[in-house]
Amino acid sequence: MTVFGEIGFLGMLTLVSALQGLFLSAIVGFRHREDGPAALWLSLLILLMSLHLIDMTLAKTSAVQYFAIVSDSSFALLFLIGPVYYAYTRALLGKGHFSPSDLIHLLPALYILWDMLPWLSIDPQFKIDWQAAQASTAHSEISLETYLKLAFNIVQNLAYLSLSLKLINSCKLDFEAASADGSLSEGMQQLSALTKAFTAWVGCYLVVFIALVVWGRFGEKIDHIWLLINGFFILATGLGALTRPALFTSRLKAVHEAQTPTSGEDSSDHEKYMRSALDKEKSKALKEDFEAYMAKEKPYLEGTLRMPDVAAKLGTSPHYLSQMINQELNDSFLAVVNRYRVEEVIHLMRDPARQKDTNLTLAFEAGFNNKNSFNRSFREFTGKTPSAFRQTKA
Fold first, then answer.
1. What angle do CA 80, 86, 90 make, to 5 degrees?
2. Which of 48, 90, 184, 225 falls 20 to 30 Å from 308 in CA-CA distance?
3. At 352, which CATH number?
């Protein structure tokens, strides 16, 4: 029987997915090279998962004889996925650069690799015979040590994904306090969705682990299912990076650049303003100036409006403007600006001369630069979708 015959249909699917993953890894790294380190981290992430999938798929066939010295050795790569994803998130959001202390994140993978040295150095023929015996055995047993390693890897991935989500949410708050760029807002939403998708992948990992604990004697069959899940996930991640570039572009770096030293302040953090020179009377005066400026000059029509720019026009500091918006308007800068944009869209909808224009055309004219951001903001402020609102006002 040929190698392809030994792999079977499901094995072929996973192998093709893994090979496509190698290709997508190179394409993502090249296509999004403007992202700098972030593109490299994402490319590395897809590469690690693809190499592991190729190793685990081919190790179940006679093809193992051609790479026996490294076969079944990619287990250590699993312990790099969490750290690499966290590094990708940090790089994309401009939060920190690589430092020697970051090497500590490699310790689990290095330990696993060290622990596997006896296996790597063993006679290749012994590996071939052992793996052939495993493949032909109806019931396979998994050692307690392997269970513990798998459990640690699951906890490790969840920890890094939790750190990534925490970082994303923190940057989202900072961004909303400093910028009204709808495309960046949508990018943050999509990055958060990607992180949750990876969390779902770890959830599948946990289910497979529990299945192994309960039905360990069927380890080979469960392993095939897990490899298939990995194959589909690699394709989804790689193709998503290519077909939805807004999810992986360098525009998210502007979140970091748009932050002010005081961005991200919450209206409930009253103590932060205790020593501020902006008293209640001055705050109300600044509110009046802000509303007059927004009504007369309509700066919200600029899709990439930033709070520091508005503060400069009003002759005040970003800190004072942020304090006023939090205390007087009880909202973020992004939400306030989007409210003006929604009101502008509604005004345009009621214009008889604009009845033939699409909702998206009106949205872009009002300052929105992203369809999803517009639809979400419109529904938030009116309780209806743009189309439903337009029909009721017809």
1. 140
2. 90
3. 1.10.10.60
Model's pTM, two decimal places?
A: 0.80
Task: Tell me, yes or no, whether 138 lies in a domain.
Answer: no
Terminal C-alpha separation, the chain: 70
Decide if 158 contacts 202 (C-beta within 8 A). yes
Measured between alpha carbons, how far is 375 from 334 in angstroms, rounded to an integer?
Answer: 15
User: Looking up tokens 């993502």, which residue turns up?
Assistant: 28
**The domain spanning residue 219 has which CATH number?**
1.20.1070.10
Cα 308–chain centre separation: 27
Q: What is the residue type of 215?
A: W
Residues 36 and 173 occupy one common structural domain: yes
Q: Is 132 domain-assigned? A: no
The tally of domains found in the chain comes to 2
Q: Please count the helices (runs of H) and the strands (runs of E) in the chain.
A: 17, 0
Q: What is the largest CA-CA distance in the chain?
A: 86
Q: How far is CA 246 from CA 35, 170, 252, in A?
A: 12, 20, 9
CB 56 within 8 A of CB 229: no
Domain that holds residue 62: 3-126+144-258
377 shares a domain with 238: no
User: What values do phi and psi take at 197, rounded to 5?
Assistant: -65, -40
Alpha-carbon Rg of the chain, whole angstroms? 27
Helix, strand, coil percent content, the chain, rounded in steps of 5: 80, 0, 20
Q: Which residue in the block uniquely carries the two structure tokens 């499901």?
A: 10
pLDDT digits (tens, 9 = 90+) for 210-240: 887 777 655 667 777 787 888 888 878 777 7
